[in-house]
Fold this protein.
Amino acid sequence: MKPAAKKKTAYFCTACGAMHHRWQGQCRECGEWNCLHEETMVASPKTKNKSASVAKAVSIPNISSENHSRLISGLTELDRVLGGGAVPGSALLIGGEPGIGKSSLLLQAAEKYGQRGDQVLYLSGEESIQQIKDRAARFGISGESINVANMTELDSILELCRKDFQVIIIDSIQSIASSAFDSPPGTVGQVRESSARLIEAVKQSGQVLFLVGHITKDGSVAGPKVLEHMVDTVLYFEGDRYHLYRILRSQKNRFGPAGEIGVFEMTGTGLQEVSNPSRIFMSSPSSEPASGRTVSAAVEGSRSFLVEVEALVTNSPYGTPQRVTSGIDAKRMAIISAVLEKRGGVLLGGNDIFVNIAGGIRLDDTALDLAFLLAAASSKLNIAIEQDMLIVGEVGLSGDVRGVTQIERRLAEAAKLGLKRAIIPTANANGRTAPDKIEIIPVNSVAQALQVIQ
């Protein structure tokens, strides 16, 4: 008769996933306070005379590189973000808000992999196989090479993964439960244990593993932060569910550049790739230019595209003026507003300021600083800026306009879209050859830039 499995209690940090044998106020690994979560672990009885496997190391020249070419999905935007395709034996984590389109993207990718001859295993712990079939029919997906199952038990999933599949999709990792824990799926211990064993399995077999992760209120993947360190690639599917466009952004990639983006449009028949983002993030040319609107060029990864920056400055009816932003960090816009008032002489103390990047995209490129500043000044002074003018530059606290990276790519994109003039930092203009038909206007301060638009 086998001895019964013993149960013990452990405490896991919700921030880093570290295990503690007793409760304490602060995690000893990451230093966070009041973050320990109690979970019950089921300890398997120990067996005697069990010999450990002999470890073996191989020199780098003797490591076989056969069958390690990237798996190309055929979705150009996805392959771009992955650095040219998925690497066999890698684990990829895709996070995003509920309803943003993570499952739709992976189902369409699974169809593309299948059309190229790969067998795909799609495991869902949240949808029934009938629901998956209905979505596939709505997207026009035949799914002949997609094998679908609804299961949440880790050991059963690992047994199924041992079959001849090249791509495995788990939707989602928070729905998987391991028998090692007597706690519900989605807890820190369950997510960490399930992820570790799945990743270990695909590393040995050479399969590609896609894990779908839910997003918490602060915008990070639910579960321990260590989960992002365990996988090879972390992708975030961004965008407002009320907008048509979605951004797939690479936050971490061991096999390609981080920060790369792919752009998709959500339609009734699935996600459609957008090969030219500049045309969707800019409005159609207007016969009457409006104040508070400028055009700038952003660079994300290997891609450069034009965006439309909007600002509205109005008299505040409240005691404290509002600063509302969409697509840009609010603190960054507060700095730009202060520089505009202090160095540019445009008084904003009694005004509400609303700024936005058209299309619902969020960017952290400091090269857009000058575009935001001139858009706010344009709205305040009621001066319309022609839409054929590109504005690029980083704004310093002293009011200087600093040089930006990859100016050639930004100017080339502007020329392709038919822009005629470009306000750029003097540091970037010196010794540069601009594309044909673009007039370069160099500025080295906020005051000079304001003189150009007045």
Observations:
- The longest helix spans residues 188-205.
- The mean pLDDT is 86.
